[in-house]
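Quick start: what a row looks like.
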Amino acid sequence: MALAVLCGCQTDKKNKEVSALRMHIEANTGVVGTTQAVSVPPRDDPVLITIEKEPILTEASLIQSRVIDSHGGIAIQIQFDESSALVLEQYSAANPGKHFVIWGQWGEKAANARWIAAPLITHRIPGGELSFTPDMSREEADRLVLGLNNVSKKIIKGQLQ
């Protein structure tokens, strides 16, 4: 009985875990107030990149996320909905040589929120799927993805009702 209660609590906690993801585009230093400089990974040797303050995409338009094994490390693969896939394609086509700068938050503690990746845009990205190598542990990535998928389920459920 105690095992059933314990497992039920852990499952309930996993279902309640939420995460946030903000994807920004690198910007030229321009109009005051619309851009900001951020320190991006790797954390042991960060680089300052100027970004547009407003994100181009957020977790609200994700369909699903997953952690994948990649060349001795991990990557996060995110899939956007149809309209956001077009946004990703347009920004990637118009900004080769710049970076997408990705901020993530998993859990409720401020310590679990930071800039996690700055993938270089090398080509047009059709289909709404983006994979990137985050500057985070496997445990942090698993929590981020769990929370993103929970948020996606809640949004889809809300849209269907």
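That is the whole record. Residues 73 and 133 are 8 Å apart (CA to CA). The first strand starts at residue 19 and ends at 25.
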